[in-house]
Structure formats: structure tokens, C-alpha cells
Amino acid sequence: MPNNELNALIALLDDPDKEVFNAVSDSIINHGLGVVSILEKTWELSNSELAQRRIETIIHTIQLNGTIENLSKWCGAGATDLLEGAYFLSLYQYPDTQFTAIEKSIEKIRKDVWLELNENLTALEKVKILNHIFFDIHGFTSNTTNFFAPQNNFINLVIETKKGGPIALAIIYSTVAQRLGLPIYSVNLPKNFILAYKDRFKTSTTDNPKDSILFYINPFNKGAVLGRREIEHFLSQQSIVSKDDFFLPCSNKITITQLIKSLIYSYEKLGNPDKVHDLEYLLKATALVDNNLFE
């Protein structure tokens, strides 16, 4: 959109006629994220409270639509990069987040671990090194003092503050692991979120997927290694009926879905119904991709 045309539309944002505003708003929104910086500048210079409120609404709608579009395309393309999915979700609240900055941080961790690994190590020994670099050297930790804070679920903030919730920590940890060639994948355990270390040799020789798991890892507890019995005990303590899915790797899409649900719960705790509504709509939009109902 040429600047003169955009400026003409912006000039009408404080028009008292709602029909005029709705038409202007739709036109601006349709042009997407590219106009956000101009709208933000207009907001700063405006003396009209009505225009400022309307600009805030338009920017919010543009950002939400952009996140929906990004995640929908991500799902439609196979949801192959888990870190990318988490990044797209972060843009909902932090639209200026740069994927290159996230990638740079991940690569630094990967390189530090790689320098300590060798092919003679066992799977447990490799995880011990990864845990040391990830938690002790780079300082990642669980945010137990403010467990329900929304920032625990935004990947950019977790990388920046080194504090996060179970799902975000699992995403970062597994991303580093997989880039090192370690077969570590998300497991959607109820009331927690853990990782499974798969046995590459058994994966191709067993008919039972559960037999292909060497052990489990809990990133929310400094990478503690678990066996199947510990998980069964945890489920029993929580009065949760055991299911095979609780012991097997889940898809990247399920991981991001759980991340969105965690955010919804955080905003419910904070009493922020607008955010809850946004994220429920976002969750619905991303789920619709599989049914070819969302373009």
C-alpha cells in the first residue's frame, strides 16, 4: 500500500461513523504486518484517544492474524521444525522477535555440547554431558517460583531469561539434542511434559513402539533421567489412567498445541479473558489445518 493511501486511511481512524471506521480498519488489516510500524508511529503522534484505541485494536488484530497464518502454514507444510513453531507462537505477543537471534542461541548451546561428545559414549553419558552444558553452563532452569507466568511459554523469553515451563524447556532441549544427532523427542505426559530417548536399533526391529524407548528425560527437573516405572508411579499419584500415548513421542503439532494450552491456562490464572479468547481461536485455527478447513 502506498504511504499516501495508507495515510489517508489512518486520517479516518477517529471518524465517529462506525461504518466508516470498520471499512477503514478492514482495509488496513488486510495489508498485514508491514503497516504495523507506521501505525505505531501514528499512535505516538496522535492526540486522539479514540484513534489511539482503534490503532491498538488494529495492531492487535494484525498480529493475531499473522500468528494464525504462520502457524497454519507451518502445520500445512508438515510441522517439521518444532523450534520454528514455537517461534511463530512467540510473535503473537512479541512481534519483533527475530528467528535468527533464537537460532544463534541454540547454535551456541549445540556447539558447546558437541565439543564434549564422542561416539564412544553411551546414551546416558551423552545426556549427562548435555544436561551439564544446558543447565549448569548455560543456566537454564525451571521457573518454579512463578510457574503460571505466561513468559514461561514464549520461546524467545525462555532463551533470554533462561527460565521456563516444562514445554518450552523441552522444546529447546530437544532441538539442541536433535541437532547433535541425538534421538530425543517430546512426550505429552499429562500434568508435565517430558522427553524420550529412542533406541535407533530397536526402533527398526520391534513391533512394539514402547520397546524402542531407552529412557525418559525431564527438562523441568534439570534433565533427570526416568524409567517407565517412574512415569507409571507419577500417573498413579495423579490418579490418571495410564495410556500408551503417555510413553511415546508425540508430533510437533501436538507439542505446540500443548504450548498454546499452557498459555491459555496462564492467562486464565491472570484473569485476562481477551488473551484467552485469542489463544482459543488460535488453537482452533491451527487444528483446522488437518481438516482442510483453514486456508
Write up what this structure looks like.
Mean pLDDT is 90; it is low at 288-295. It is elongated and about 70 Å long. It has helices at residues 3-10, 18-29, 36-45, 49-76, 82-90, 99-114, 123-137, 155-161, 166-179, 200-203, 228-237, 252-270, 273-287, and strands at 141-142, 163-164, 184-187, 194-198, 213-218, 224-226. A hairpin with a 6-residue loop joins strand 3 and strand 4 (194-198). Helices cover 57% and strands 7% of the residues. The protein is of the alpha+beta class and 295 residues long. The strands form two sheets. A four-stranded antiparallel beta sheet has the order 3-4-5-6. The chain has a two-stranded parallel sheet with strand order 1-2. The chain folds into two domains: 3-76; 82-291, no CATH class. The protein contains 13 helices and six strands.
Topology:
Elements: H1 3-10, H2 18-29, H3 36-45, H4 49-76, H5 82-90, H6 99-114, H7 123-137, E1 141-142, H8 155-161, E2 163-164, H9 166-179, E3 184-187, E4 194-198, H10 200-203, E5 213-218, E6 224-226, H11 228-237, H12 252-270, H13 273-287
Parallel strand pairs: 1-2
Antiparallel strand pairs: 3-4, 4-5, 5-6
Portion of residues within helices: 55-70%
Count of beta strands: 6
Amount of beta strand: 5-15%
* Count of individual helical segments: 13
Terminal-residue CA separation: 23 Å
Report the order of strands and helices: HHHHHHHEHEHEEHEEHHH
Domain tally: 2
Residue-averaged pLDDT: 90
Question: Can you tell me the overall shape?
Answer: elongated
Largest beta-sheet characterization: 4 strands, antiparallel
Uncertain spans:
288-295
Structural class by secondary-structure content: alpha+beta
Gyration radius from CA atoms, angstroms: 22 Å
